[in-house]
Each structure stands twice: as structure tokens, then as C-alpha cells.
Amino acid sequence: MTLGIRRLPRTEEIFVLGGAFALVIATIWLWWRRSLLLEYFYFAPLLALTHLVTLGFLSSLMMGMLYRLAPMLLGIEPRSRKLASIQLAFFLVGAWGMISHFWMAEWIGMSWSSILVWAASIVQLANFRDLYRRSSKAPWARRFVASSLVYFFLAASLGVVLALAKAYDLRASFLATRYLSNVFAHAHLAGVGWVLSMIFGFQLKLVPTTEGNPSSLPYRFALLHLGTLGLAASLLLSTTPAPFALSLAIVCGWQALGPATAFARGRAREWELLGLLLLTVTAALGLALALGWPEESSPARGRAQLAYGFLGLYGFMTLTVVTVAFKLFPIWVWKERFLPDFGKQPIPGMKDLPSPGLRLWANVATFAGSLGTGLAIYAGSSGGLTFTTTVLASGIVAFVVNLFLVVRWSFLELTPKDASGR
Fold first, then answer.
1. CA-to-CA distance for 191 and 59, rounded, in angstroms?
2. DSSP element (H, E) containing 255
3. What is the pLDDT of residue 412?
4. Between the N and C ends of the chain, which has fewer C-beta atoms within 10 Å?
5. Taking phi first (over 0 means left), then psi (-120 to 50 degrees means alpha), and beta for anything else, what does residue 196 get?
6. What span, in angstroms and rounded, lies between the C-alpha atoms of 282 and 311?
7. pLDDT for 201-249, tens place per residue?
């Protein structure tokens, strides 16, 4: 293969590749320091790992996919490539500044880094403001995605308030007396509001079985946002979160119903269902926690909370990326890299770009490893964590290697030997 670089990566590709890099670092870190998952969840190293997943991996990937998918699936172009570059600069410096300062337990630097992430959320809203205009193209997918950008702004805003409170011992009047309640509200605005809303929106286009009966979409949209905003408000106001956790559990199960029915009838592949099954398990655990199980005084309470956070932020969301990626990336790479040469010279087929074996192993191992790790966290089993995090890491390795096999063609020259496969 010729090693000459054909072009430099675009802004959205830097977001996506940065997210993939963060996933690799997070997985190595998770496997190497798996004992962290048996500790109390609110301390500096675990906060650094959490933000490596939520900011370094998930948020970076969501931003890149938005720039790529919004024009194709929603009919929305970003207003400015310059704004995209500004967003990228704000986000990369801010996110990695937060991660590194969390690791060092250096709260002042972390608080100033959080302001840059907040600024990135504003630039993103400005660049995609056309999402908030009425359109007949994919209206419900647009609504889910548009709301996700608002949630990112809200989560980043609350994150700045919490960061400044931590660094300078300040306290806003609307914050809950119990500091962890504020942290949980921030986590749900980010994980459910920002990431899950965007996933649900794009799933309607990428996984058509999730649409189900179109008349159900307004109710699912309402349940998702009632649950997200209600849960965050109940945590900040120290009221019962159970009704809102029930709302989220219903909408998560509803999202999985279509793929589950199609899979049972042989009309869907396993990758369409695995992530949503894990999401349903996570939502059920969240409902149990909201209803008071395990009891606040029980040592199992903290383990159940950490298992819930892990299954949601790392398990379901990572599995969704792993399972959906190879519906998208081979198409993008083949069209951009090989379509102009179609009929002019030998070129690889679209299905030849990824490895089917690596894809299957990534799907199954990530699902089994994530679910097993959640169970091992709750059981407090060190030996169980060793096994399950190894299985999980093997799935992520298979995913990253397979992604490299596909994406490399965007940047490398094609030779006759490469095209013929000999």
C-alpha cells in the first residue's frame, strides 16, 4: 500500500477520530485500573475516567456525527465551517483540560476548562440553528436531535456552575443541599438529554425498526423529555424522582420494542437490538434506584448506582456506536474514495472494507462484557471484573481495528495491488 497521505482530515473527522482515540484510552484505563469500579464513585480518578468517556469519547463522537449525518439524514447544513473549527478548538482544549485536571484533582484548572466546553455548546447551537426551523423532512428525527443540542448546553451550564462551586467554594441558590444530587442532575442532562436524545433521533433514520408506529413518536418524544427534565429538577429540588424514572424506563422499552419484534420475526439483525436491550436493563435499574432499592443505608446502594452509570454511559452508548458504525463508515469511505474510480479501474467492494468476523466479535463481546461488568460491579467481585473487562476490552479492540481497516482508505493512495487484493 502506498503510504502517501491524500488529504488532511476534515473537522468532523477530527471529532470522530478524537472520540475513537478517547475510547481506546478509556478502555485501556478501565481494564488496567478496574479496581476503581469497586471504590466509591465520587473521587478524582473515577471522575477523570467518567469524563474521558462522556466528553473525550461520546461528546466528541456525537459532534462529529452531527456534522456528517445532519446534511444527509435531516437536510440541515451547518452554517459555517469556520464556526465548526472554533467549536473544535474550544471543545478539544476544554474537554482534555477537564479530563487532565480531574486526574490531578486540580479544581481551578478544571473549572476554567469547563467554560471552554460550555462555549463549544453555544457555538454548536449557533451553527445548527436551522434545526429549529419548521421542515417536512424527518420532522421527529430533527426534533430529537435539536433537543439534544439544547441539553448539551444545559448540561455544560450546570457543569460550569458545579465546577466553580468546587473550585471556589461558591454555591448557587438553585443547587440542592446534597452535592451529589447536583452531580446526578448534571449526569442525566448530559447522558440522557444530550447523548440519548441524539441517538434516538438518528436511530429513526439509521435503524428504521425503531420508528414502530409513527403515531407513537409524539408520545415517546414527550416521555423522554418529561423524564429527563423532571428527573434533573427532582434531583435539584430534592423531591421524588420515581415518576420521571418510570417515564424514561417506558420510553427506553418502547424504543426497543420495534427492533425486538422485527428480530423475533427474522427481519432484523442482532446489532439492531443489542444496544437497546442493554438500555432497557439500565433504565429498569434506574427505576429501581429511584424507588429506593437498594436502601440508602445499604452498602449495595453505591454499587448499584455505579453499575447504573457504567451500563448507561459506557455500556449502552459504546455498544450503540460499535453496532451502528459499520452501517455508516463503509458507505462513506467507499463513496468518497472509490466511487469516482468505479468502472475505470479495479476497486474494492463496499463489503470488502470491514471484516465481518471482527464486526460480529465486537458486537457480542461489547454487549456481554458491558453487561457482565455491570453485574460484577454490583456484586463487588474483583475476579468477575477481571474477566468481564477483558471480554469488553477485546470487543473494543476488534471494533477499533475494524474501523481502522475501513477509514485508512480515506487517507491512503490506491495501488493496483491493493485493489486486486493480491
1. 10
2. helix 242-264
3. 62
4. C
5. alpha
6. 6
7. 999 999 999 999 999 999 999 999 999 999 999 999 999 999 999 999 9
Place of cell 471504590: 39
- Map residue 345 onto helix, strand or coil: coil
The closest alpha carbon to 100, from 62, 59, 51, 53, belongs to 51
* Assessment of whether the complete model's pTM goes beyond 0.90: yes
* Integer Cα distance of 367 and 320 in angstroms: 10
Contact predicate 105/44, CB 8 Å: yes
* Amino acid symbol at 154: L
Residues 294, 234: Cα–Cα separation, whole Å: 19
Domain ranges of the chain: 1-137
Looking at every residue in the chain, the average pLDDT score rounds to: 92
> Which residues contact residue 265 at a Cβ distance below 8 angstroms, ignoring those fewer than 6 apart?
none
What would the mean pLDDT of 386-392 be, rounded to a whole number?
Answer: 98
Q: What is the distance in angstroms between the CA of the first residue and the CA of the last residue of the chain?
A: 11
Closest CA to 268 of 322, 310, 208: 208
d(CA 284, CA 40): 22
How large is the greatest C-alpha to C-alpha distance in the chain, in angstroms? 71
Give buried/exposed letters for 56-94 (b at 16+ CB in 10 A, else e): bbbbbbbbbbbbbbbeebbebebeeeebbebbbebbbeb
